[in-house]
TrEMBL record:
Its main location: membrane. InterPro entries: LPCAT1-like (IPR045252), Plipid/glycerol_acylTrfase (IPR002123). Residues 226-337 form the Phospholipid/glycerol acyltransferase domain. Belongs to the 1-acyl-sn-glycerol-3-phosphate acyltransferase family. The keyword Transmembrane helix applies. CDD domains: LPLAT_LPCAT1-like (cd07991). The chain crosses the membrane at residues 6-25, 141-159, 165-186, 198-216, 350-370. One of its GO terms (biological process) is phospholipid biosynthetic process. This is Phospholipid/glycerol acyltransferase domain-containing protein. GO terms for molecular function: glycerol-3-phosphate O-acyltransferase activity.
Amino acid sequence: MELVWSVLWWVYALVFLILFLSATVHHPLGLRKHYISILLRLFAFGQERVERKRSLRSRNEIDEPDSSFEDQDIPLISSEHPRALGIKDDIKGFKLDHVLEYISAGMAVVIEDDVTKSFEPEELPAWNLLSRTNNRAYEFVSFRLTICWVVGFLIRYFLFFPLRIVILILGTVLFWICMLAVGLLPNGSAKRWLNEKLLVFCFDFIAGSLSLVATFHNEEYAPKNGIAVANHTSPIDSMVLATHNCYDMVGQKQDGFLKIFMTALSRASTHIWFERSDAKDRSLVVKRLKEHACNSVLPPILIYPEGVCVNNTTVVQFKKGAFEIGCVIHPIAIRFDARFGDPFWWQDKFFHYVLYMMTSWAIVCNVWYLPPMTRNPGESAIAFANRVKAKIAHQGGMIDLSWDGFLKTNPVKEEWKKRQQEEFAKHLQVKDELKITESVKEKEE
């Protein structure tokens, strides 16, 4: 037993040393990428066994073709397209069958609910040896696959998990000490330089607790100041981006574990935290945001315009606040590889989320820095936000949705309902009545 503890101690000490050196020089040693390549070969072996079992079953079963509304020409109504496709312009008067297209569109939206699907954990096309995904008892398909799953379970829960907890605790303590030290310095270029170096170092070290493997593309577009906007999947999005570049952040005030990081960050730089339910607080945020973005000596400020965490497959409506300021926008697209671990935050308790993350294989993602974008003359803030959102969704290979992400918890806005009603009523007016109304207006003028 003493030999086992001695071996574990030396393994842990070696891991700490590697993480510390990697974070210090800010140059990955390639060990995590080798680990990912081993996992990919293991997943390929498991998928081969699963497909073999499926082929045996398919010989005795007849699969019925799945019917989906996506394959049919069903009119879908959205906030940007309030009119059902079946409503014609030349109708005269109201008939009961005029509502059928709206009923069809409503039923299609209920069945093919894009909003709800965007807030559910991503379903993987292949099994990744985690019983939490594609839970169809794949671990019992074959004896060798069962052995691989059991060994993987023991490694994740009894080797990786304790090690990652220790790394997280040490990294958090180190983060607090560094940010406190930076906060004691007077404002100036030296403080900003030290904050940039220590922030990247600390987050790079803490990222080791999740076995993070992040690949950054188009580094020449990495923001140096101004406003950076990114799609939002999880609370670790900021950590992922901060392992490569220094940011000041804007976000909702949190309690618990996240509050520790927010308090430490506020000691070292000009981060902006607000209470979303307080209208006065939100108005002050816009003012502070504009002042920060226009100051070229401050780090870029990082914003998630969606306002909610989305499941890594879609990008929902961007709030227009950051796009009304008139500054240059630096878009960033983040796409996680859910095969190794799904970072989407859907759990009720943050502790459950952390446990879920730290017992996954790893967190793997790609980050794309996109060319800076500016608001065109005469372009509204909403149109500009949609244009930036479309660029991010296209680069990340995600679906671009126009729906507000807060629809998952809040009822539909009354103004949206009114738009549907006005559009429907407009196409039910008789042409003769329209002419009479127009002539009356002309006489009055």
